[in-house]
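Quick entry, no commentary yet.
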Amino acid sequence: MRTFTQAHSIAILPAADARMVPAWLPSRPVRTADRSHREEIDMFENQQHDDVEKFIHADAETRRLYFRHKELDSKLEDAGRGCLALGDEALTQMKREKLQAKVQLQRMWDRWQQSRH
Protein backbone atom coordinates (compact mmCIF):
# COMPACT_ATOMS: atom_id res chain seq x y z
CA MET A 1 0.00 0.00 0.00
CA ARG A 2 1.32 3.43 -0.99
CA THR A 3 1.22 6.33 1.41
CA PHE A 4 -0.06 9.80 0.50
CA THR A 5 3.49 11.11 0.26
CA GLN A 6 4.57 8.40 -2.14
CA ALA A 7 1.50 8.80 -4.37
CA HIS A 8 1.81 12.60 -4.58
CA SER A 9 5.52 13.15 -4.59
CA ILE A 10 6.92 16.17 -6.40
CA ALA A 11 9.44 15.51 -9.10
CA ILE A 12 12.61 17.54 -8.87
CA LEU A 13 13.77 18.52 -12.32
CA PRO A 14 17.42 18.76 -13.29
CA ALA A 15 18.99 22.16 -13.84
CA ALA A 16 17.86 23.85 -17.06
CA ASP A 17 19.78 22.78 -20.09
CA ALA A 18 20.10 24.98 -23.20
CA ARG A 19 18.26 22.31 -25.19
CA MET A 20 15.31 22.47 -22.76
CA VAL A 21 14.77 26.26 -23.03
CA PRO A 22 12.00 27.17 -25.49
CA ALA A 23 13.15 29.17 -28.52
CA TRP A 24 10.77 32.05 -27.74
CA LEU A 25 12.48 32.84 -24.43
CA PRO A 26 15.04 35.65 -24.61
CA SER A 27 18.69 34.64 -24.22
CA ARG A 28 18.97 36.99 -21.27
CA PRO A 29 16.48 38.89 -19.12
CA VAL A 30 15.25 42.08 -20.78
CA ARG A 31 15.71 45.02 -18.47
CA THR A 32 13.24 47.90 -18.62
CA ALA A 33 16.04 50.32 -19.49
CA ASP A 34 17.04 48.14 -22.47
CA ARG A 35 13.47 48.00 -23.72
CA SER A 36 12.72 51.74 -23.46
CA HIS A 37 16.08 52.69 -24.98
CA ARG A 38 15.57 50.23 -27.85
CA GLU A 39 12.07 51.51 -28.46
CA GLU A 40 13.19 55.14 -28.58
CA ILE A 41 15.82 54.17 -31.12
CA ASP A 42 13.29 52.22 -33.21
CA MET A 43 10.56 54.83 -33.15
CA PHE A 44 12.73 57.93 -33.59
CA GLU A 45 15.66 56.45 -35.44
CA ASN A 46 18.47 58.90 -36.24
CA GLN A 47 16.95 61.66 -34.10
CA GLN A 48 18.71 63.60 -31.36
CA HIS A 49 17.84 62.29 -27.90
CA ASP A 50 17.22 65.84 -26.59
CA ASP A 51 14.80 66.56 -29.43
CA VAL A 52 12.92 63.33 -28.75
CA GLU A 53 12.64 64.22 -25.05
CA LYS A 54 11.34 67.72 -25.87
CA PHE A 55 8.82 66.25 -28.30
CA ILE A 56 7.53 63.65 -25.85
CA HIS A 57 7.04 66.24 -23.13
CA ALA A 58 5.69 68.97 -25.45
CA ASP A 59 2.04 68.30 -24.62
CA ALA A 60 -0.19 65.92 -22.70
CA GLU A 61 -1.55 64.08 -25.78
CA THR A 62 1.93 63.29 -27.09
CA ARG A 63 3.01 62.04 -23.67
CA ARG A 64 -0.15 59.93 -23.28
CA LEU A 65 0.23 58.36 -26.71
CA TYR A 66 3.97 57.72 -26.28
CA PHE A 67 3.53 55.99 -22.92
CA ARG A 68 0.53 54.00 -24.20
CA HIS A 69 2.75 52.76 -27.05
CA LYS A 70 5.43 51.77 -24.53
CA GLU A 71 2.83 49.99 -22.37
CA LEU A 72 1.55 48.00 -25.34
CA ASP A 73 5.11 47.16 -26.38
CA SER A 74 5.83 45.83 -22.91
CA LYS A 75 2.64 43.73 -22.80
CA LEU A 76 3.30 42.29 -26.25
CA GLU A 77 6.85 41.45 -25.24
CA ASP A 78 5.54 39.70 -22.11
CA ALA A 79 3.02 37.78 -24.21
CA GLY A 80 5.80 36.74 -26.58
CA ARG A 81 7.82 35.38 -23.66
CA GLY A 82 4.81 33.54 -22.30
CA CYS A 83 4.55 35.72 -19.18
CA LEU A 84 1.18 37.17 -20.18
CA ALA A 85 -1.59 34.95 -21.47
CA LEU A 86 -3.49 36.60 -24.32
CA GLY A 87 -5.92 35.16 -26.83
CA ASP A 88 -5.33 35.62 -30.54
CA GLU A 89 -7.99 38.32 -30.81
CA ALA A 90 -6.60 40.35 -27.90
CA LEU A 91 -3.06 39.98 -29.23
CA THR A 92 -4.12 41.17 -32.69
CA GLN A 93 -6.00 44.13 -31.20
CA MET A 94 -2.98 45.16 -29.11
CA LYS A 95 -0.68 44.95 -32.14
CA ARG A 96 -3.10 47.10 -34.16
CA GLU A 97 -3.38 49.69 -31.41
CA LYS A 98 0.41 49.81 -30.99
CA LEU A 99 0.90 50.33 -34.72
CA GLN A 100 -1.77 53.05 -34.82
CA ALA A 101 -0.07 54.83 -31.91
CA LYS A 102 3.28 54.62 -33.68
CA VAL A 103 1.87 56.00 -36.94
CA GLN A 104 0.12 58.82 -35.10
CA LEU A 105 3.28 59.63 -33.12
CA GLN A 106 5.28 59.73 -36.37
CA ARG A 107 2.79 62.20 -37.87
CA MET A 108 2.94 64.31 -34.71
CA TRP A 109 6.75 64.20 -34.83
CA ASP A 110 6.77 65.37 -38.45
CA ARG A 111 4.43 68.29 -37.64
CA TRP A 112 6.48 69.17 -34.56
CA GLN A 113 9.70 69.16 -36.60
CA GLN A 114 8.14 71.41 -39.26
CA SER A 115 6.87 73.87 -36.65
CA ARG A 116 10.40 74.26 -35.29
CA HIS A 117 11.89 75.31 -38.65
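second:
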Amino acid sequence: MTTVRSRTRQKSRHIETDILPAITIYPVHRELVHRSNPVDVLPTGWRVLAKDRFVISVAWPVDHPFYTRVNGKHSANLIGETIRQCGLLLAHAAYDVPLGHHFVMWDMTYTREAGPADGDRAVHHLEVEVTCSDLRFRGTRLGAMTCDMTLRADGETVAQGGGRFDIVSPAAYRRLRGTRMESGARPAEIGAAQARSGGSGSEPPSVSGAGLEPPGASEPVQPDPVPPETVGRTRVIDVLLAPAHTRTDAAPTDRWQLRADFGHPTLFDHPNDHFPGMVLLEAAFQAANAAVAPGLLHHHTAAKVAFLGYVEYSTPCWIEARATTAGSPLTAVVEITARQNDRLVFTALLEGTAVPAPLEGTSAQG
Protein backbone atom coordinates (compact mmCIF):
# COMPACT_ATOMS: atom_id res chain seq x y z
CA MET A 1 0.00 0.00 0.00
CA THR A 2 1.05 3.62 -0.48
CA THR A 3 0.67 6.47 1.96
CA VAL A 4 0.30 9.99 0.61
CA ARG A 5 -0.38 13.35 2.15
CA SER A 6 -3.64 15.14 1.40
CA ARG A 7 -3.46 18.95 1.71
CA THR A 8 -6.31 20.68 3.53
CA ARG A 9 -6.33 24.45 4.15
CA GLN A 10 -7.38 25.42 7.64
CA LYS A 11 -7.57 29.03 8.86
CA SER A 12 -6.23 30.22 12.19
CA ARG A 13 -6.78 33.78 13.48
CA HIS A 14 -4.30 35.46 11.14
CA ILE A 15 -2.59 32.74 9.14
CA GLU A 16 -3.47 29.67 7.11
CA THR A 17 -1.95 26.34 8.12
CA ASP A 18 -1.64 23.15 6.17
CA ILE A 19 -2.96 19.95 7.74
CA LEU A 20 -1.57 16.94 5.96
CA PRO A 21 -3.29 13.80 7.24
CA ALA A 22 -1.94 10.51 6.00
CA ILE A 23 -4.16 8.76 3.48
CA THR A 24 -3.56 5.12 2.64
CA ILE A 25 -3.96 4.11 -0.99
CA TYR A 26 -4.56 0.38 -1.42
CA PRO A 27 -3.46 -1.50 -4.53
CA VAL A 28 -5.78 -3.53 -6.74
CA HIS A 29 -5.13 -7.15 -7.68
CA ARG A 30 -6.97 -8.61 -10.64
CA GLU A 31 -8.68 -11.25 -8.50
CA LEU A 32 -10.52 -8.48 -6.64
CA VAL A 33 -12.33 -7.40 -9.83
CA HIS A 34 -12.82 -10.95 -11.18
CA ARG A 35 -10.44 -10.52 -14.10
CA SER A 36 -7.80 -12.97 -15.31
CA ASN A 37 -5.98 -10.68 -17.75
CA PRO A 38 -4.24 -7.67 -16.17
CA VAL A 39 -4.97 -5.51 -19.24
CA ASP A 40 -8.70 -5.79 -18.44
CA VAL A 41 -8.31 -4.48 -14.88
CA LEU A 42 -9.55 -0.88 -14.70
CA PRO A 43 -9.09 0.20 -11.03
CA THR A 44 -5.50 0.97 -10.01
CA GLY A 45 -5.95 1.96 -6.36
CA TRP A 46 -8.53 2.90 -3.76
CA ARG A 47 -8.77 4.87 -0.55
CA VAL A 48 -11.31 5.56 2.17
CA LEU A 49 -13.02 8.95 2.36
CA ALA A 50 -15.38 8.25 5.27
CA LYS A 51 -17.63 5.47 6.49
CA ASP A 52 -19.00 3.71 3.38
CA ARG A 53 -17.45 6.34 1.10
CA PHE A 54 -14.46 5.69 -1.12
CA VAL A 55 -12.45 7.03 -4.04
CA ILE A 56 -11.12 4.61 -6.64
CA SER A 57 -8.49 5.54 -9.22
CA VAL A 58 -9.32 4.07 -12.61
CA ALA A 59 -7.23 3.84 -15.77
CA TRP A 60 -9.15 3.36 -18.99
CA PRO A 61 -6.95 1.56 -21.52
CA VAL A 62 -5.09 3.58 -24.10
CA ASP A 63 -5.23 0.80 -26.66
CA HIS A 64 -7.63 -2.10 -26.14
CA PRO A 65 -9.25 -4.11 -28.94
CA PHE A 66 -12.61 -4.36 -27.17
CA TYR A 67 -12.93 -1.28 -24.95
CA THR A 68 -11.33 1.34 -27.18
CA ARG A 69 -12.80 2.69 -30.38
CA VAL A 70 -10.62 2.63 -33.44
CA ASN A 71 -10.78 6.45 -33.64
CA GLY A 72 -9.30 6.71 -30.15
CA LYS A 73 -12.43 7.48 -28.14
CA HIS A 74 -13.65 5.07 -25.50
CA SER A 75 -16.87 3.17 -25.97
CA ALA A 76 -19.76 3.23 -23.55
CA ASN A 77 -19.27 -0.33 -22.34
CA LEU A 78 -16.35 1.00 -20.31
CA ILE A 79 -18.75 2.89 -18.03
CA GLY A 80 -20.71 -0.23 -17.16
CA GLU A 81 -17.53 -2.26 -16.69
CA THR A 82 -16.08 0.46 -14.46
CA ILE A 83 -19.18 0.37 -12.27
CA ARG A 84 -19.03 -3.42 -12.10
CA GLN A 85 -15.35 -3.62 -11.22
CA CYS A 86 -15.52 -0.83 -8.62
CA GLY A 87 -18.40 -2.58 -6.85
CA LEU A 88 -16.57 -5.91 -6.81
CA LEU A 89 -13.39 -4.29 -5.58
CA LEU A 90 -15.03 -2.62 -2.59
CA ALA A 91 -17.01 -5.71 -1.65
CA HIS A 92 -13.83 -7.77 -1.42
CA ALA A 93 -11.29 -5.20 -0.25
CA ALA A 94 -13.33 -2.86 1.94
CA TYR A 95 -16.02 -5.23 3.26
CA ASP A 96 -14.01 -8.46 3.44
CA VAL A 97 -16.14 -10.61 1.11
CA PRO A 98 -13.98 -13.70 0.46
CA LEU A 99 -12.83 -14.53 -3.02
CA GLY A 100 -14.93 -17.33 -4.47
CA HIS A 101 -18.24 -15.79 -3.44
CA HIS A 102 -20.69 -15.09 -6.26
CA PHE A 103 -22.23 -11.74 -7.13
CA VAL A 104 -25.77 -11.38 -8.44
CA MET A 105 -26.28 -7.96 -10.00
CA TRP A 106 -29.90 -6.84 -10.09
CA ASP A 107 -29.72 -3.48 -11.80
CA MET A 108 -27.41 -0.82 -13.17
CA THR A 109 -28.13 2.77 -14.15
CA TYR A 110 -25.96 5.61 -15.37
CA THR A 111 -26.00 8.86 -17.27
CA ARG A 112 -23.20 10.12 -19.44
CA GLU A 113 -22.28 13.79 -19.24
CA ALA A 114 -21.41 15.87 -22.27
CA GLY A 115 -17.78 16.53 -21.43
CA PRO A 116 -14.29 15.16 -21.86
CA ALA A 117 -15.43 11.62 -22.64
CA ASP A 118 -17.37 12.87 -25.65
CA GLY A 119 -14.89 15.51 -26.75
CA ASP A 120 -11.80 15.35 -28.89
CA ARG A 121 -9.53 14.77 -25.87
CA ALA A 122 -9.32 11.13 -24.92
CA VAL A 123 -10.00 10.26 -21.27
CA HIS A 124 -7.70 7.72 -19.67
CA HIS A 125 -7.46 8.51 -15.96
CA LEU A 126 -10.50 8.88 -13.73
CA GLU A 127 -11.42 9.19 -10.09
CA VAL A 128 -14.57 7.31 -9.11
CA GLU A 129 -16.26 8.47 -5.92
CA VAL A 130 -18.40 5.69 -4.45
CA THR A 131 -21.04 5.74 -1.73
CA CYS A 132 -22.19 2.33 -0.49
CA SER A 133 -25.66 2.09 1.06
CA ASP A 134 -28.39 -0.38 1.95
CA LEU A 135 -25.76 -2.76 3.30
CA ARG A 136 -27.31 -6.05 4.37
CA PHE A 137 -25.45 -8.69 6.33
CA ARG A 138 -25.91 -12.39 6.82
CA GLY A 139 -24.39 -12.75 10.24
CA THR A 140 -21.13 -10.84 10.00
CA ARG A 141 -20.77 -11.33 6.22
CA LEU A 142 -21.93 -8.72 3.71
CA GLY A 143 -24.84 -10.12 1.72
CA ALA A 144 -26.00 -7.18 -0.43
CA MET A 145 -25.36 -3.52 -1.10
CA THR A 146 -26.06 -0.61 -3.40
CA CYS A 147 -23.25 1.48 -4.88
CA ASP A 148 -23.70 5.03 -6.20
CA MET A 149 -20.80 6.36 -8.24
CA THR A 150 -19.57 9.56 -9.85
CA LEU A 151 -16.88 9.22 -12.49
CA ARG A 152 -14.65 12.28 -12.94
CA ALA A 153 -11.75 13.14 -15.23
CA ASP A 154 -9.68 16.21 -14.35
CA GLY A 155 -12.44 17.31 -12.01
CA GLU A 156 -15.15 17.12 -14.68
CA THR A 157 -17.97 14.63 -14.34
CA VAL A 158 -17.89 11.95 -17.01
CA ALA A 159 -20.80 9.84 -15.78
CA GLN A 160 -22.97 9.16 -12.76
CA GLY A 161 -24.57 5.84 -11.92
CA GLY A 162 -24.43 2.72 -9.87
CA GLY A 163 -25.97 -0.65 -9.21
CA ARG A 164 -27.31 -3.10 -6.68
CA PHE A 165 -26.11 -6.64 -6.12
CA ASP A 166 -26.42 -9.61 -3.79
CA ILE A 167 -23.50 -11.73 -2.62
CA VAL A 168 -23.91 -15.50 -2.47
CA SER A 169 -21.60 -17.96 -0.73
CA PRO A 170 -20.21 -20.91 -2.74
CA ALA A 171 -22.44 -23.37 -0.85
CA ALA A 172 -25.57 -21.28 -1.41
CA TYR A 173 -24.66 -20.84 -5.08
CA ARG A 174 -24.36 -24.59 -5.52
CA ARG A 175 -27.82 -25.01 -4.04
CA LEU A 176 -29.15 -22.22 -6.27
CA ARG A 177 -27.66 -23.47 -9.52
CA GLY A 178 -27.74 -27.22 -8.84
CA THR A 179 -26.73 -29.42 -11.74
CA ARG A 180 -26.18 -26.44 -14.02
CA MET A 181 -22.85 -25.89 -12.32
CA GLU A 182 -21.76 -29.32 -13.50
CA SER A 183 -23.45 -29.38 -16.90
CA GLY A 184 -23.05 -25.68 -17.73
CA ALA A 185 -20.60 -24.67 -20.42
CA ARG A 186 -17.26 -23.27 -19.35
CA PRO A 187 -16.56 -20.73 -22.12
CA ALA A 188 -13.07 -19.77 -20.95
CA GLU A 189 -12.01 -23.41 -20.91
CA ILE A 190 -13.63 -24.04 -24.28
CA GLY A 191 -11.90 -20.98 -25.74
CA ALA A 192 -8.54 -22.18 -24.44
CA ALA A 193 -9.13 -25.60 -25.96
CA GLN A 194 -9.98 -24.00 -29.29
CA ALA A 195 -6.77 -21.98 -29.15
CA ARG A 196 -4.71 -25.09 -28.39
CA SER A 197 -6.28 -26.88 -31.35
CA GLY A 198 -5.31 -24.06 -33.70
CA GLY A 199 -8.54 -22.06 -33.75
CA SER A 200 -8.23 -18.32 -33.25
CA GLY A 201 -11.74 -17.91 -31.87
CA SER A 202 -12.26 -14.96 -34.21
CA GLU A 203 -14.62 -16.73 -36.60
CA PRO A 204 -17.65 -18.67 -35.33
CA PRO A 205 -18.49 -22.05 -36.77
CA SER A 206 -21.19 -21.98 -39.42
CA VAL A 207 -24.23 -23.93 -38.29
CA SER A 208 -27.71 -24.79 -39.30
CA GLY A 209 -30.27 -24.46 -36.58
CA ALA A 210 -30.92 -21.78 -34.03
CA GLY A 211 -29.50 -22.97 -30.71
CA LEU A 212 -26.21 -23.30 -28.94
CA GLU A 213 -24.99 -26.85 -28.59
CA PRO A 214 -25.64 -28.39 -25.16
CA PRO A 215 -23.01 -27.24 -22.65
CA GLY A 216 -19.86 -29.21 -22.24
CA ALA A 217 -19.35 -29.82 -25.95
CA SER A 218 -15.79 -29.56 -27.22
CA GLU A 219 -16.78 -26.96 -29.78
CA PRO A 220 -19.91 -24.93 -28.97
CA VAL A 221 -22.28 -24.43 -31.86
CA GLN A 222 -23.18 -20.83 -32.51
CA PRO A 223 -25.45 -19.17 -35.03
CA ASP A 224 -23.76 -16.97 -37.61
CA PRO A 225 -23.43 -13.32 -36.52
CA VAL A 226 -24.90 -10.26 -38.14
CA PRO A 227 -22.37 -8.08 -39.99
CA PRO A 228 -20.21 -6.26 -37.43
CA GLU A 229 -20.81 -2.82 -38.93
CA THR A 230 -24.56 -3.08 -38.28
CA VAL A 231 -23.95 -3.27 -34.52
CA GLY A 232 -21.15 -0.71 -34.26
CA ARG A 233 -18.30 -3.19 -34.29
CA THR A 234 -15.45 -3.97 -36.66
CA ARG A 235 -14.49 -7.50 -35.52
CA VAL A 236 -16.60 -10.61 -35.90
CA ILE A 237 -15.37 -11.90 -32.54
CA ASP A 238 -17.12 -9.00 -30.77
CA VAL A 239 -20.57 -9.54 -32.33
CA LEU A 240 -23.18 -10.89 -29.90
CA LEU A 241 -26.25 -10.93 -32.17
CA ALA A 242 -27.36 -13.41 -34.80
CA PRO A 243 -30.33 -13.08 -37.17
CA ALA A 244 -33.47 -14.58 -35.64
CA HIS A 245 -34.51 -16.51 -38.72
CA THR A 246 -33.70 -19.54 -40.80
CA ARG A 247 -32.39 -19.28 -44.34
CA THR A 248 -35.94 -19.42 -45.74
CA ASP A 249 -37.55 -16.92 -43.38
CA ALA A 250 -37.79 -13.17 -43.70
CA ALA A 251 -35.44 -11.55 -41.20
CA PRO A 252 -37.12 -9.33 -38.62
CA THR A 253 -35.06 -6.18 -38.10
CA ASP A 254 -35.79 -5.86 -34.38
CA ARG A 255 -35.18 -9.40 -33.11
CA TRP A 256 -31.97 -11.39 -32.81
CA GLN A 257 -30.57 -14.42 -31.08
CA LEU A 258 -27.87 -13.95 -28.48
CA ARG A 259 -24.65 -15.58 -29.64
CA ALA A 260 -21.03 -15.41 -28.60
CA ASP A 261 -17.54 -16.44 -29.47
CA PHE A 262 -16.49 -18.32 -26.34
CA GLY A 263 -12.85 -17.67 -27.19
CA HIS A 264 -13.31 -13.93 -26.62
CA PRO A 265 -10.45 -12.95 -24.29
CA THR A 266 -12.39 -10.19 -22.50
CA LEU A 267 -16.01 -11.31 -22.41
CA PHE A 268 -15.13 -14.88 -21.40
CA ASP A 269 -11.85 -14.58 -19.55
CA HIS A 270 -12.82 -16.98 -16.76
CA PRO A 271 -15.23 -19.94 -16.38
CA ASN A 272 -18.89 -19.20 -15.83
CA ASP A 273 -21.97 -21.41 -15.88
CA HIS A 274 -24.18 -18.78 -17.58
CA PHE A 275 -23.88 -15.79 -19.89
CA PRO A 276 -22.26 -12.99 -17.85
CA GLY A 277 -24.33 -9.89 -17.21
CA MET A 278 -21.86 -7.66 -19.04
CA VAL A 279 -22.34 -9.80 -22.16
CA LEU A 280 -26.06 -8.97 -21.98
CA LEU A 281 -25.28 -5.28 -21.56
CA GLU A 282 -22.98 -5.28 -24.57
CA ALA A 283 -25.65 -7.17 -26.55
CA ALA A 284 -28.10 -4.39 -25.63
CA PHE A 285 -25.73 -1.74 -27.01
CA GLN A 286 -25.38 -3.73 -30.21
CA ALA A 287 -29.15 -4.19 -30.51
CA ALA A 288 -29.66 -0.44 -30.11
CA ASN A 289 -27.20 0.17 -32.93
CA ALA A 290 -28.93 -2.38 -35.12
CA ALA A 291 -32.34 -0.87 -34.32
CA VAL A 292 -31.44 2.50 -35.87
CA ALA A 293 -29.36 1.08 -38.75
CA PRO A 294 -28.61 1.39 -41.61
CA GLY A 295 -26.51 4.51 -41.85
CA LEU A 296 -26.95 5.38 -38.16
CA LEU A 297 -25.68 4.16 -34.82
CA HIS A 298 -27.15 4.79 -31.38
CA HIS A 299 -25.08 7.03 -29.08
CA HIS A 300 -26.72 6.62 -25.72
CA THR A 301 -26.49 9.17 -22.92
CA ALA A 302 -28.41 7.24 -20.26
CA ALA A 303 -28.91 3.57 -19.46
CA LYS A 304 -31.29 1.79 -17.12
CA VAL A 305 -30.68 -1.95 -16.93
CA ALA A 306 -32.32 -4.79 -15.01
CA PHE A 307 -30.96 -8.33 -14.72
CA LEU A 308 -33.96 -10.57 -14.04
CA GLY A 309 -32.58 -14.09 -14.31
CA TYR A 310 -29.69 -16.27 -15.36
CA VAL A 311 -29.26 -16.68 -19.12
CA GLU A 312 -28.23 -20.26 -19.83
CA TYR A 313 -25.93 -21.43 -22.61
CA SER A 314 -28.06 -24.38 -23.61
CA THR A 315 -31.23 -22.60 -24.75
CA PRO A 316 -31.63 -19.78 -27.29
CA CYS A 317 -32.06 -16.31 -25.83
CA TRP A 318 -33.94 -13.81 -27.97
CA ILE A 319 -33.04 -10.11 -27.99
CA GLU A 320 -35.65 -7.59 -29.11
CA ALA A 321 -35.29 -3.84 -29.58
CA ARG A 322 -37.92 -1.15 -30.04
CA ALA A 323 -36.76 2.33 -31.00
CA THR A 324 -38.90 5.44 -30.64
CA THR A 325 -38.10 9.07 -31.36
CA ALA A 326 -38.66 11.83 -28.83
CA GLY A 327 -39.19 15.26 -30.34
CA SER A 328 -36.49 14.91 -32.98
CA PRO A 329 -35.88 12.26 -35.63
CA LEU A 330 -32.35 11.83 -34.27
CA THR A 331 -33.38 11.61 -30.61
CA ALA A 332 -33.91 7.92 -30.03
CA VAL A 333 -35.00 5.90 -27.03
CA VAL A 334 -34.38 2.19 -27.46
CA GLU A 335 -36.01 -0.43 -25.25
CA ILE A 336 -34.27 -3.80 -25.27
CA THR A 337 -35.60 -7.03 -23.81
CA ALA A 338 -34.15 -10.52 -23.60
CA ARG A 339 -36.28 -13.65 -23.22
CA GLN A 340 -35.33 -17.26 -22.72
CA ASN A 341 -37.86 -20.07 -22.57
CA ASP A 342 -40.58 -17.38 -22.83
CA ARG A 343 -39.30 -15.76 -19.63
CA LEU A 344 -38.10 -12.17 -19.40
CA VAL A 345 -34.49 -12.29 -18.19
CA PHE A 346 -33.08 -8.85 -19.02
CA THR A 347 -34.27 -5.33 -19.88
CA ALA A 348 -32.43 -2.17 -20.88
CA LEU A 349 -33.68 1.33 -21.64
CA LEU A 350 -31.15 3.38 -23.57
CA GLU A 351 -31.76 7.08 -24.16
CA GLY A 352 -29.66 8.99 -26.63
CA THR A 353 -29.29 10.12 -30.21
CA ALA A 354 -28.90 8.42 -33.56
CA VAL A 355 -25.64 9.54 -35.12
CA PRO A 356 -24.20 8.90 -38.59
CA ALA A 357 -22.36 5.63 -38.82
CA PRO A 358 -18.58 6.00 -39.25
CA LEU A 359 -16.75 5.33 -42.44
CA GLU A 360 -15.71 1.78 -43.12
CA GLY A 361 -12.79 0.72 -40.97
CA THR A 362 -13.72 2.76 -37.92
CA SER A 363 -15.98 2.05 -34.98
CA ALA A 364 -18.31 4.30 -33.04
CA GLN A 365 -19.99 2.03 -30.62
CA GLY A 366 -22.33 4.17 -28.55
